[in-house]
Design brief:
- Keywords: ATP-binding, Kinase, Nucleotide-binding, Transferase.
- By secondary structure, this protein is mainly α.
- It has one domain: 3-Layer(aba) Sandwich (Rossmann fold).
- A two-stranded parallel sheet has the order 1-2. A two-stranded parallel sheet has the order 3-4.
Length: 158
């Protein structure tokens, strides 16, 4: 697509990385500042009219609201804002699949600060997207070309 790509893991503060490396799951207090920083990146790219893909484990509905609306979405419980702070238009891609498949992929990952042992905590935290959120669900059991085609089709359909 020629879009700019960001991996949210690259923006975790050192304290978060250390905590995960030690096998301690992150909580809301750990994640919210990180998500606000990611929102700022998305806002900057949107302002410069740059289409962007962000790989991010936005596990909870509240986390997705922060990505859309920034820190103010926490207090208001709503991503919708007007004027200069209008909500970003984001299509969330929920990569869904059995824990054993995802665990197998995590086991093959090298040099990452999050150990596979934290996978269960992510499943425990997960609130899959639901209406009225703007999302698609894609099965990780599909082949990579099928996954990419499904995502690209959804993006191009608007």
């Amino acid at each position: 697509l020629g879009w700019k790509f960001y991996d949210a893991d690259d923006y975790h503060p050192l304290e978060n990385k250390k905590k995960m490396k030690e096998g301690i799951p992150l909580n809301d207090e750990d994640r919210i500042p990180w998500l606000c920083a990611l929102h700022d990146i998305l806002r900057r790219e949107d302002t410069s009219r740059q289409d962007t893909i962000l790989a991010c484990s936005a596990l909870k509905k509240m986390y997705r609201r922060v990505l859309i609306g920034g820190a103010s979405a926490i207090e208001s419980n709503q991503p919708e804002q007007s004027g200069e702070n209008r909500a970003l238009k984001i299509l969330f891609v929920h990569l869904d699949g059995p824990k054993d498949i995802i665990a197998g992929r995590l086991e093959k990952r090298r040099g990452h600060f999050m150990p596979p042992e934290l996978l269960q905590s992510q499943f425990d935290t997960l609130e899959p997207p639901s209406a009225p959120e703007n999302f698609i669900t894609v099965s990780v059991e599909k082949s990579l070309p099928e996954i990419l085609l499904q995502i690209e089709s959804a993006i191009l359909q608007g």
